[in-house]
Amino acid sequence: MPTQEQRVALVTGATSGIGLSVTRTLAGQGHRVFICARNADNVAKTVKSLQEEGFDVDGTSCDVRSPEDIRGFVQAAVDRYGPVDILVNNAGRTGGGVTATIEDELWHDVISTNLTSVFLMTREVLTTGGMREKNRGRIINIASTAGKQGVVLGVPYSASKHGVVGLTKALGNELGPTGITVNAVCPGYVETPMAQATRQRYAAAYNTTEEAILEKFQAKIPLGRYSTPEEVAGLVGYLVSDTAASITSQALNVCGGLGNF
Ligand SMILES: NC(=O)c1ccc[n+]([C@@H]2O[C@H](COP(=O)([O-])OP(=O)(O)OC[C@H]3O[C@@H](n4cnc5c(N)ncnc54)[C@H](OP(=O)(O)O)[C@@H]3O)[C@@H](O)[C@H]2O)c1
Predict the structure, then answer these.
(1) Is the four-CA dihedral 4, 164, 202, 213 of positive or negative sign?
(2) Is the confidence at residue 1, as pLDDT, over 50?
(3) Name one GO biological process term (predicted).
């Protein structure tokens, strides 16, 4: 049984890792969740398996780098479930390297995937999605502790996530009087396919093994371990609740103590 009023939620990048866990959490709270990712087969498989678990979930493919895809995605969500109450901007990519050798293409792709997408999707949800017409809404951006501190060999990623934190604070202040809250959730290290790709990248950069990189990363975390996607989703599940109405313009860490700022 839903524990609170049923809402319409959009989650981007929902076929894997944190986005999938957020979708399961929101659907488990009784909300209707419309999801996307680039790979259409994975979207279809994810929707089918969540529907088989009894959740009210649907979705379509969308590349959050494409304004046209974003328009189509939000319109499809409204056609399917009605105006949007909750937006979780989660889709993202890793990316960096020795800064002097970073190609323009990588820089632009990381900024487009992680930051510009958040602006485009949010604007579309406020307008086509109908959120601006409501007196309540929740926008949650999955940033990173890398959005609060510099990450070595991660200039594009760290810059994009600092941008997401800045966008969150400014938009939260702007929308304060409307009842729409805007917050960033900042994971530290979370065990997902992206985390694995990140370890591979650092192992290559430091000419060492992925196991050595894992040990090095874990040693930086006071809890001594990665967080789980479910632990990140748990905070999202709280932020969408009615009780969280006065939490806005914040960037909240879920990181085992990695960042304490
Ligand atoms: N894992 C961590 O340690 C960690 C830490 C801090 C922050 N984060 C942030 O958390 C978010 C999720 O990360 P994750 O670790 O769960 O990643 P993940 O397991 O790699 O999943 C990424 C999801 O995003 C989708 N996606 C990627 N690019 C997309 C695009 N251009 N358009 C639409 N969907 C796209 C992927 O599907 P397709 O490939 O089919 O598009 C997939 O569903 C990201 O914003 C990431 O920066 C992760």
Answers:
(1) negative
(2) no
(3) monocarboxylic acid metabolic process
